[in-house]
Design brief:
This protein has 4 helices and 2 strands, in the order ββαααα. It is mainly α. Strands 1-2 form a two-stranded antiparallel sheet. The longest helix is centred in the last third of the chain and has 40 residues. The termini are far apart. GO terms for molecular function: DNA binding; transposase activity. It comes from Streptomyces microflavus. Keywords: Coiled coil.
Length: about 110
């Protein structure tokens, strides 16, 4: 394979945040396989496996997620729920502003 800047051509570079999110997604799906999660994300199965091993500190056989406590899972769910509720409030405010603007412009165009 031809190399460019020391990196084989054709290899994709993924941001560290994407890699961390991919590992977290794999770990958040009980019973999911690396192959299924990699297919969902559009990455190579071996690539995702490497990211998971790296996140586990490169330990051999450390492909599965560490056991999560129910408290940690509950806290993560609560944090996600709070973020979703905040986003819903923002979207509702934007919708209300657009409705008011539409009413205003509808009355302006009437004769």
């Amino acid at each position: 394979m031809v190399q460019e800047n020391g990196v084989p051509v054709g290899m994709k570079h993924y941001p560290a945040a994407f890699k961390a999110d991919a590992v977290a997604l794999y770990r958040s799906r009980p019973g999911a396989t690396i192959k299924s999660v990699a297919a969902d994300l559009g990455v190579n199965t071996e690539t995702l496996g490497n990211w998971i091993r790296a996140a586990d500190g490169g330990r051999p056989g450390a492909h599965s997620a560490p056991p999560a406590t129910s408290q940690a899972v509950g806290d993560a769910v609560q944090a996600d729920l709070a973020a979703v509720r905040k986003r819903i409030r923002e979207l509702e405010e934007e919708r209300d502003i657009l409705r008011k603007a539409a009413r205003y412009f509808a009355t302006e165009t009437r004769w």
